[in-house]
From TrEMBL:
GO terms for biological process: electron transport chain. The keyword Membrane does not apply. Keywords: Electron transport, Heme, Iron, Metal-binding, Signal, Transport. Gene3D superfamilies: Cytochrome c/b562. This is Cytochrome c.
Length: 150
């Protein structure tokens, strides 16, 4: 059932992501969109982290499902960092726009690590999941340290 839902939701999310920048009539909408994507991503990463830290039982199928959702979400928020979206209730530092190339590299590094996380989760091996989760977390932290307000 989870795979069926994922199979239905994934294409929809990807279709929505492509024209995302055109969907934002106001910069505040882009801010809200990217924050929402990051919030949902954080929820699924937290579930994986709980398994990796032994705070929740390791369930290979649940780990794979969460990693798949993180992978599906990973490409979505970046189009919502367009010019003029540095307004309102944003946690983004000005460096997102003043160091655009560095920000793009950081976002791509994160997305690359998420692909590895998804592959590790598919193995059903907790040690591989832990290693990939650690690397993904480091890519998140690197981006947050440079581009997210405290």
């Amino acid at each position: 059932m989870k795979r069926l839902i994922l199979a239905c939701v994934a294409p929809l999310c990807l279709m929505m992501a492509m024209p995302a920048a055109a969907q934002f009539q106001k910069p505040e909408q882009a801010v809200k969109y990217r924050k929402s994507v990051f919030t949902v991503t954080s929820q699924h990463m937290s579930r994986l982290r709980a398994m990796a830290e032994g705070k929740a039982p390791f369930d290979p199928k649940l780990a794979e499902a969460n990693a798949n959702l993180v992978a599906m979400l990973a490409p979505l928020p970046w189009s919502a960092f367009g010019e003029g979206t540095n307004v309102g209730n944003t946690d983004a530092k000005p460096e997102v726009w003043s160091q655009g190339d560095k920000f793009k590299q950081a976002s791509q590094a994160y997305q690359d690590e998420v692909v590895k996380l998804q592959a590790a989760a598919k193995t059903g091996n907790l040690d591989q999941l832990k290693a990939a989760l650690g690397a993904t977390g480091k890519s998140c932290k690197a981006c947050h340290d440079s581009f997210k307000k405290d």
